């Protein structure tokens, strides 16, 4: 299954969903970034029951001081309609003040704890701080999206019971490859981050098969085993029975 896709950004959404089904993708976790995208994510999930599952988030790229309360209020009011919080976290490559990012992230972590929702974490150039905040808040379930940081920190992340995700960037990213090689297969989720471009080509949910193939190659495991295990991981992480929907197409 594709554990992280920005479906609301797709102009070819019906075709992309059909192609994913035909490729054997058994479910998609649609993530939100702000109020408007969260609304669209909920609508898409409602229109595609038992295939698209919603996560609501407030992406650090979207944080603006004057919009913070509206975004947090919407998430608090609709958290029971989603299976996870995401995409949330920190990003130290953007201009948004770190103090503001920390405050928003802390509030979202509180929502997650109160609602017992797993977290999908964005942590570009901020892996250590993101981990520290998640650990301090005693978050039980978190996946570090597209992990590409140090293996020392990865060991700490794994020791706390957290997961990381594998993307099609495994084709060309040495840090991402090393992280996936290090992590046990039981702690890996597959994703595409649709519609992110990889080497000039926009991803779609069907491209989770690229992630699958690269994980199988790097860990010297069969595609079928990786498909079965990572789908079971996602089912357990999100509390959704993806595994029962899968077709043996791998």
Can you give a write-up of this model?
With 250 residues, this protein is α/β, with parallel strands linked by helices. It has a single domain (2-242), classed as TIM Barrel (Alpha-Beta Barrel). The protein contains 10 helices and 10 strands. An 8-stranded parallel sheet has the order 1-2-3-4-5-6-7-8. It has a two-stranded antiparallel sheet with strand order 9-10. The mean pLDDT is 95.
Structure characteristics:
TIM Barrel, 10 strands, 10 helices, alpha/beta, eight-stranded parallel sheet, two-stranded antiparallel ribbon, globular, single chain, 250 residues
Describe how the helices and strands are arranged.
Blueprint: E1 2-5, H1 13-23, E2 28-30, H2 35-47, E3 52-56, H3 68-78, E4 84-91, H4 98-115, E5 119-124, H5 127-136, E6 142-144, H6 151-159, E7 163-166, H7 174-182, E8 188-190, E9 197-198, E10 201-202, H8 208-219, H9 223-238, H10 242-245
Parallel strand pairs: 1-2, 2-3, 3-4, 4-5, 5-6, 6-7, 7-8
Antiparallel strand pairs: 9-10
Helix pairs in contact: 3-4, 8-9
């Amino acid at each position: 299954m594709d554990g992280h896709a920005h479906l609301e950004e797709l102009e070819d959404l019906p075709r992309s969903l059909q192609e994913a089904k035909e490729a054997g993708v058994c479910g998609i976790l649609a993530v939100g970034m702000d109020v408007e995208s969260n609304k669209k994510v909920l609508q898409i999930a409602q229109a595609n029951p038992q295939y698209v599952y919603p996560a609501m988030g407030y992406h650090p790229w979207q944080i603006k001081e004057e919009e913070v309360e509206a975004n947090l209020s919407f998430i608090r009011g609709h958290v029971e309609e989603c299976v996870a919080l995401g995409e949330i976290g920190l990003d130290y490559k953007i201009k948004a003040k770190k103090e503001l990012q920390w405050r928003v992230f802390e509030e979202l972590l509180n929502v997650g704890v109160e609602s017992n929702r797993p977290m999908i974490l964005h942590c570009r150039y901020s892996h250590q701080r993101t981990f520290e905040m998640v650990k301090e808040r005693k978050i039980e379930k978190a996946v570090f999206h597209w992990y590409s940081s140090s293996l020392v920190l990865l060991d700490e992340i794994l020791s706390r019971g957290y997961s990381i995700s594998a993307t099609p960037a495994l084709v060309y990213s040495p840090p991402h490859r090393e992280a996936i090689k290090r992590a046990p297969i039981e702690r890996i989720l597959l994703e595409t981050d649709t519609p992110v471009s990889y080497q000039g080509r926009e991803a779609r949910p069907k491209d989770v098969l690229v992630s699958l193939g690269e994980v199988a190659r790097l860990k010297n495991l069969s595609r079928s085993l990786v498909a079965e295990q990572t789908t079971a991981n996602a089912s357990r992480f999100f509390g959704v029975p993806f595994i029962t929907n899968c077709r043996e197409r791998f």
